[in-house]
Specification:
Radius of gyration: 19 Å
Helix content: 55-70%
Strand content: under 5%
Largest sheet: none
Length: 219
């Protein structure tokens, strides 16, 4: 990595770590430029030398909480034989990590944060390639999406391409899976269900939906 990029990464990391700490302690909605500058030990104006806007920095801080999930994906995907296997295993991995940290994941994927941020995600992994792990090209394409529906559709489209589900059923599978996940995530947030039970329920429901849509003879 060139020296100028190393310096840029080091300074950005100060702000990212500060924002991540505020997210953990107070939630995304309570992040302000003043708080970030105070916690990072820099002048407020310095933030805009490295980030275009507050959402840019907030997204980078949020990405830190996805690191364990992303790095665990290759292990979860071992032994998968087709796109549907991958679809289910990626959901399982996502649920496993998100139900352990529901406030953070709900803030990342269901907050009012600007959703048109894919370019920032590409920039993040350019600066922190180690956090993308050793995922396949298709999985990496999913991870580079910010919107949770688009991430899911990337996986569902592979199922369509392999003839496992009909094109007309792709949106239904994606939307129902996401709605199931969001509903149970809210239950975990409210303490109405344990992370382990939430994982079992979510995967049972998503598998039931997937099984009902799989083209006969391809399962």
């Amino acid at each position: 990595m060139p020296k100028n990029m190393i310096r840029e990464k080091r300074t950005m990391t100060f702000f990212i770590d500060a924002a991540a700490e505020i997210i953990k302690q107070e939630g995304i909605s309570n992040i302000t430029i003043r708080k970030l500058a105070d916690k990072a030990g820099y002048n407020s104006a310095t933030i805009y030398n490295y980030f275009e806007k507050l959402d840019h920095l907030v997204l980078f801080a949020s990405m830190k909480y996805l690191k364990d999930y992303v790095l665990a994906l290759p292990e979860f995907l071992k032994g998968t034989n087709n796109a549907m296997d991958r679809f289910l295993k990626i959901w399982e991995c996502f649920c496993f990590y998100s139900f352990k940290d529901p406030e953070i994941y709900h803030s990342i994927f269901f907050s009012s944060l600007d959703k048109d941020l894919e370019d920032y995600i590409i920039e993040y992994y350019r600066l922190f390639p180690e956090e993308l792990g050793t995922t396949s090209n298709s999985t990496s394409a999913m991870l580079l999406k910010y919107n949770i529906y688009e991430r899911g559709m990337t996986l569902v489209q592979e199922c369509v391409n392999e003839g496992l589900i009909k094109k007309d059923d792709a949106e239904a599978l994606n939307e129902m899976s996401t709605l199931i996940y969001e509903g149970i995530l809210l239950k975990v947030l409210k303490g109405k269900i344990s992370p382990d039970k939430a994982l079992d329920k979510t995967m049972n429901y998503i598998k039931h939906v997937a099984d009902s849509l799989v083209v006969s003879g391809t399962a």
